[in-house]
Specification:
globular, 367 residues, mainly alpha, 14 helices, two-stranded antiparallel sheet, 74% helix
């Protein structure tokens, strides 16, 4: 009995170092993310100089820049309206990638809005996972649940369509690299032109072969839950596999992206950058591609870096580029938080409603 008591006493001390290490890793990761974001944001306002030693030099007079910000209110409001339009347009497009019978438009819209909210409050841009879970919960209440993995598979198809549509619009834009635009942007676009078709092919090949992996696990009698997830994910990816549905989804994607790009064109014009009617799509492409990978620890910093870089390529001064980065990001956050908050209130959503089943109960039990 004494031996058992001694062993029990050792358990907390053995588990404590592991917990402490995880805590330290999270703290260090947070410090690195904040430092990286601060550096990237600062690049919009300062540049390094090496005369007499390394130091930072302001790109423009900051006092005058701050004083000029209120004069941009008219286009900031217009930009916010175009940014908020992303939710209803994406919800409409999503209907073409979901399997039939597709969920009600109201369920799709509120799921998209909550996902936009999540992208702005959850580090790492994991709002799309929140969007998929929201659709699952909303359809559960109607008695015909859309599985989470299936929903996530359709969202991935939508994200691929976003990239393809952006690529098409940039290539066709007079502000793009093939119509006298920046050759630097054209070089960057070459990599995207190679990567996107490869991603599309990999996605649909995965939808074909993933069920075989599930069948193999079933024959071995292993991981029954994983088998279901794999099959649902494959169904979600393949749901829009017909040429007609893919074509309609792509048309909806073009409409959604063109609307948001128009907001960026207005922003460029309002900031004093006259780069043409289609210049907004170039700026949108830079911002989107810069923030695309989920889990990036410096999403805010990447927005500032990609926005100011693309704006300067389009002819903006450093002061105009900083104005665009600050005000478009601020208004994007406000518009997305607003539409998401309205959906949370209308649907009476609570955080525990969007967690995987059992997580809430386990956390309550552990407390």
């Amino acid at each position: 009995m004494n031996t058992a008591l001694r062993d029990a006493d050792r358990l907390p001390s053995a588990a404590a170092p592991k917990g402490a290490i995880r805590t330290v890793k999270r703290i260090l990761g947070g410090i690195v993310a904040v430092a990286l974001s601060a550096t990237l944001i600062g690049s919009a306002f300062f540049r390094p100089a090496f005369d007499g030693g390394l130091h930072l030099v302001s790109r423009f007079p900051l006092g005058e820049w701050f004083a000029s910000l209120p004069h941009h209110l008219w286009w900031v409001v217009l930009f916010g309206l175009f940014s908020a339009a992303m939710a209803p347009l994406r919800a409409f497009r999503w209907g073409f990638t979901l399997p039939k019978p597709k969920p009600a438009y109201s369920d799709r819209y509120h799921s998209v809005a909550i996902g936009l909210l999540g992208n702005n409050v959850i580090p790492g841009k994991f709002g799309e996972a929140l969007r998929a879970m929201a659709l699952t919960r909303f359809t559960e209440k109607r008695g015909k649940a859309t599985p989470f993995a299936l929903s996530l598979g359709t969202i991935i198809v939508c994200k691929v369509l976003d990239l393809v549509a952006l690529l098409v619009l940039v290539v066709l834009s007079p502000s793009g690299p093939f119509f006298g635009g920046s050759t630097d942007f054209g070089a960057s676009l070459t990599g995207v032109a190679i990567a996107v078709p490869s991603l599309v092919a990999a996605l649909f090949l995965g939808a074909r072969f993933v069920p075989r992996l599930a069948d193999r696990l079933e024959r071995k009698g292993k991981h029954p839950k994983l088998q279901n997830v794999l099959r649902e994910f494959a169904v979600g990816v393949a749901a829009s596999g017909s040429p007609l549905r893919i074509g309609l989804a792509f048309a909806g994607t073009l409409a959604a992206i063109s609307t948001v790009a128009t907001g960026y064109t207005i922003a460029l014009y309002g900031a004093g950058v006259h780069a043409g009617l289609f210049s907004g799509v170039v700026l949108l492409a830079a911002v989107t591609l810069g923030q695309s990978p989920p889990g990036v620890p410096a999403g805010l910093g990447m927005y500032y870096l990609s926005c100011t870089w693309a704006a300067r390529l389009l002819g903006a001064t450093p002061e105009q580029a900083a104005t665009l980065a600050v005000l478009t990001h601020l208004m994007t956050v406000i518009s997305h938080l607003s539409v998401g908050a309205v959906s949370v209130v209308i649907r009476r959503v609570k955080l525990r409603d969007l967690l995987p089943r059992g997580v809430g109960r386990r956390s309550v039990a552990s407390s």
